[in-house]
Amino acid sequence: MIQKKIYVSRPSLPPIEEYMDEIRDVWETGIMTHQGPKHVELQEKLQSFLGAPNITLFGNGHLALELGIKSMHLSGEAITTPFTFGSTTQAILRNDIRPVYCDVRSDDYTMDADKIEDLITDKTSVIVPVNVYGNICDIDRIEKIAKKHGLKVIYDSAHAFGETYRGRNASTFGDASMFSFHATKVFNTVEGGCLTYHDASLTQYLEGLRQFGQIVKTDVTPYIGTNAKMTDIHAAMGLCNLRHFEESIAKRKVVASIYRSRLSNVKGLKLSVVQEGVESNYAYFPLVIEEADTGINREQVIKALADENIFVRKYFYPLCSDFEVVKNLGIRSDVPVARYISDRVITLPCYSDLLPEDAERVCDIILDLYR
Ligand code: T4K
Questions:
Q1: Quick one: pLDDT at residue 1?
Q2: Which atom in ligand 1 lies closest to the alpha carbon of residue 192?
Q3: CATH fold of 245-370, please?
Q4: Rounded CA separation 112/99 (Å)
Q5: pLDDT digits (tens, 9 = 90+) for 27-37
Q6: Summary mean pLDDT of the chain
Q7: What's the pLDDT at 352?
Q8: Whole-angstrom Cα distance, residue 144 to residue 323?
Q9: Which residues does 17 contact at the CB level (< 8 Å), separation at least 6?
């Protein structure tokens, strides 16, 4: 029997009638963008949901990060992680800042705080850690180091929407945090993202950067911006999805629990640690395939699954430090742990509409290889 195709991710979608109801007013008012009513409502609802000190919405997560860095007038060098989606490094480079790569921890794949201080120079202005897969960085140590050296901290929290660490929402970490609302994320507006931040005086500047450098609703254009607005049509999707967020996370938790219970303690398979104090959103389920123990490698696992129409991904391979564009800048890095993980990792299908029986089937196929 031909099996249906299963991908690493699928968007969480509200019932179509609910979305039609939500966008009905847009048809009536004709206000589709430029901070219309849906945009304003989503911004308010998200600020309260995330307990964010301040929040600005953007057309995607990448621009939220890029413009967030720009808003703080940073230059020189940024200490960041190579084990992430290309967006993190690109946001730094597009601000004419040089990325300096810090290695990651071997259990949760986030920036290794023990290795940060050795990388600080008189050019360092910011640390850009990533809460990769929704795993939370060592925020206390990172923020202590930043304070000691007078550095900003801007988190790439693309994967950490809705998460808390010891009761503290990820929207309050560092000087600022970026969240992605891409279709494949735990909360989506199709495309979209936001920046949360502590310094309220950044709001006007961020809104200007988002809209051609203008001071919004004036004729004044004091700086160079871009077009990074979220439309009301996208915001309406966010309003619907926010109503279903808790239910969607509960379903992801079931999938993650099946993977964890069946794939733990299998020789040759390494799971990411369950972090104490973190209320997880189950954004991604990484699995590291350690060939040395069994002779079974990542490509064999990917093929066995693909043969059954299950398409996993190598998030995140290659490392950002191995991008041509980075190497051509003469940036050299010593990141053996990140390289080890990146060379062996896959991320399993993990989304709210993945049926438990499909998650069981993913495990059956993998475990069959190890029998
Ligand atoms: N920082 C980090 C750490 C990130 O992971 C990301 C984005 C960003 C920053 C930037 O945020 P955004 O600017 O994107 O808001 C996907 C996503 O496009 C990207 O948002 C995400 N990270 C990255 C990890 O994954 P691709 O190139 O792997 O996507 P794609 O099109 O291959 O999709 C993956 C699977 O998802 C497909 O096999 C099928 C499914 N899918 C995809 C789309 C687009 C759907 O079912 N429906 C869809 O509409 O990057």
A1: 60
A2: 15
A3: Aspartate Aminotransferase, domain 1 (3.90.1150)
A4: 16
A5: 999 999 999 99
A6: 97
A7: 96
A8: 31
A9: none
Q: Give the end-to-end CA distance of the chain in Å, rounded to a whole number.
A: 23
For 159-202, the DSSP string reads T-TT-EETTEEGGGSSSEEEEE--TTSSS--SS-EEEEES-TTH
Of 191, 192, 282, 187, the residue nearest 240 (C-alpha)? 187
Q: Any residues with CB less than 8 A from the CB of 73 and at least 6 apart, and which?
A: none
Structure tokens at 309: 């129409």
What is the CATH T-level fold of the domain 16-243, as seen in this structure? Aspartate Aminotransferase; domain 2 (3.40.640)
Cβ atoms of 89 and 99 within 8 Å: the answer is yes
Q: Is 187 close to ligand 1, i.e. is its CB under 6 Å away? A: no
Which residue stretches of the chain are H helix? 16-29, 37-50, 61-71, 86-93, 139-149, 202-210, 232-243, 245-263, 291-294, 298-306, 324-327, 336-342, 356-370
* Residue 159 CA, ligand 1 centroid: distance in Å: 11
Any ligand 1 atom below 6 A from CB of 262: no
Distance 343 CA to ligand 1 centre (A): 20
Give ranges for CATH 3.40.640.10 in the chain. Answer: 16-243
Q: How far is the CA of 184 from the centre of ligand 1 (A)?
A: 5
Amino acid identity, residue 118?
D
Residue 354 — pLDDT band, cuts 50, 70, 90? very high
**Mutate which of 184, 188, 230, 285 for ligand 1 pocket (most atoms within 8 A of beta carbon):** 184
CA distance linking residue 229 with residue 34, whole number of Å: 7
